[in-house]
Amino acid sequence: MRNLLQEQLLKAGLAKKQQVDAAARAQARQRDGKAPVADKIDTDKLLAERAERDRALAAERNARAREQELRAQIKQIIETHQQKPAGEQPYRFIDAGKIKEILVGERQRQQLANGSLSIARHLDTYALLPQAAALMVRERGGEIVVDHSRATPAAQADADEEHYRRFVVPDDLMW
Predict the structure, then answer these.
(1) H and E: helices and strands count for the chain
(2) Is the pTM higher than 0.70?
(3) How far from chain centre, in Å, is Cα 82?
(4) Span 146-169, pLDDT tens digits
(5) Are 142 and 74 contacting, i.e. CB atoms less than 8 angstroms apart?
(6) 100 - beta bridge partners?
(7) Cβ atoms of residues 20 and 2 within 8 Å
(8) C-alpha distances out from residue 21 to 2, 9, 37, 48, Å
(9) Contacts 24+ apart (CB under 8 A), 108-114
(10) Does residue 109 sit in helix, strand or coil?
(11) Angle at 98 between CA 133 and CA 111, to 5 degrees
């Protein structure tokens, strides 16, 4: 179907029948949604960008899911392995620059001192954990507030000195 302007241009001789037919085909393609080849290149580029964006979003979603999974594991470890504070003696420790305290018994105080018990932050409270559970929490990124089982830097330095005493350097060595 030709429109009125195309008929007038044909009658006046200003346009040829082939030009009118080409214009009609272009209008039909545009109406039907068929784009020329140049537009297909743009769609391929858009599809590639969309796929890349989808991959980035999926990676971010997977990272968040992994983080939530680790938090759930930490919560489960603490809830299953925590020991209830059994006593009336306050055990004071520093957390985030503030002095906190938890009530423990004499046996738990000894276990905290020798490193077989640790204190972990759990939600808004603190939990007493055996050393094995504290290690699992630390591996998953949980926060252990008090852990006396780890060697202090001074104790590590003493161990290093003891090791190097075995290797004697003579005093008369000439350089």
Answers:
(1) 6, 5
(2) no
(3) 26
(4) 877 765 555 667 777 888 888 877
(5) yes
(6) 93
(7) yes
(8) 9, 12, 20, 36
(9) 108/83, 112/146, 112/148, 113/148, 114/148, 114/149
(10) helix
(11) 35
